[in-house]
Amino acid sequence: MKAQVFNDGRKAHTTKIAVTAMSAMAAETATFPVDLIKTRLQLHGESLVSSRRISAVRVVAEILRNDGILGLYKGLSPAIIRHMFYTPIRIVNYEFLRNSLVPADHTLSLSSKAIIGGISGVIAQVVASPADLVKVRMQADSRMVSQGLQPRYCGPVDAFNKIIQTEGVRGLWKGMVPNVQRAFLVNMGELACYDHAKRFVINNNIANDDIYAHTLSSIMSGLSATTLSCPADVIKTRMMNQAADNQGNCKYKNSYDCLVKTIRVEGLKALWKGFFPTWARLGPWQFVF
């Protein structure tokens, strides 16, 4: 009898993980073009005192002109690989930590949920960081093509192989520190604000506990998470995109060096490059997921 209960529980747990992974991959596919636009905006004008301002519309037009409609999905495969691990690990860790701290008939405070969500995101991001690195570099490669340069990689497998050969296995975790910081802030902002926003919407009779409340809460939590995490996201993108030259030198020594150089050269507002595409992606991502 106990064995049967254990097997049923294990089967349900496995099914939940599989459904979570597939839902995350569907959400990532649906919103990926927005993520590509965000990355291109974050890399635009990097370390340049004066550069021509660029908008999301111009980025899209440039991608469509040079690569066609499929160019909007450059780097999708490593992004899907990332979410095969990132989202299930995040959800499983969150539920494990939550259930370990309080009994089933109790609820956690908002601050506790935010901290647990942040920790869960950090653990998942450490595991998924190599796939994130490859995604960022493949997205950046499409920008190199538009500049008449040869792309560094011809696919995700080629990217993994070349990174390991030139930068070592540790190179797959380049930019992990700002990536982990971003993961903590995103998960903390999403969980805390979503819970608060949904309660506010329902208690003030703006909407019932239905799809409308979910949509409004997703938009507000996406805004909160974007505001908190955008600076770390910009630093993460730039750290991940940089590759060592023939002499083994890199543009940035570490995350702090990247932060200082970005602010010194481009100003403080550069830390919020790609803000609106990031927000536009987080809301629908939560909704689809």
Automatic annotation (TrEMBL):
Species per Swiss-Prot/TrEMBL record: Solanum tuberosum
Family (UniProt): Belongs to the mitochondrial carrier (TC 2.A.29) family.
Subcellular location: Mitochondrion inner membrane
Pfam families hit by this protein: Mito_carr (PF00153)
Entry keyword set: Membrane, Mitochondrion, Mitochondrion inner membrane, Repeat, Transmembrane, Transmembrane helix, Transport
Stated name of the protein: Mitochondrial carrier protein
A GO CC annotation given for this chain: mitochondrial inner membrane
Solcar repeats: 15-100, 108-200, 209-289
Gene Ontology biological process: response to cold
Membrane topology: Multi-pass membrane protein
Encoding gene, per UniProt annotation: LOC102581449
Recorded GO MF terms: transmembrane transporter activity
